Amino acid sequence: MDDLLKILKSNAHTPVEDLAKELNLSEAEVRARIGKFERDGVILGYQALIDATKAGNGSVTAVIEVKITPERGGGFDRLASRIAKFEEVQSCYLMSGGYDLLVIAEGETLQAIATFIAEKLSTIKGVISTATHFRLKAYKENGALLHREKREPRLAVAP
Questions:
Q1: pLDDT tens digits for 25-46?
Q2: Which domains are present in the chain?
């Protein structure tokens, strides 16, 4: 991955002047490269990583394993695109292994997720089965630790 993209991925809020210094480029070159990445669709957007428990977000997150029948001429892509368009779906991935799609969905309550699965997801022609797992607690998200341990001062080791 490009060095500029690596830095932006870990902290998209890094000032252009800091990026320029770290990459040994001018600020104008950095701005131009970022602009090109955005125009070319390499950078799709910028998001803040939020600790939902501290922000008071009471939403429920579910990881849903979905088995589907691939379509003739479209494979998995058409069904995956259709599923990805639901507002409850935060992420959707084609997977190898025992199921085809991994869907990350969010809702206000467990019942909202259950309704989404029962009334929207499972009713799509081509969806064979689903298995749902609810997130209970997050420890790390997108590379960031969410719960930092407070370090106790260590005692000296006596012989």
A1: 999 999 999 999 999 999 999 8
A2: 3-39 (no CATH), 52-136 (3.30.70.920)
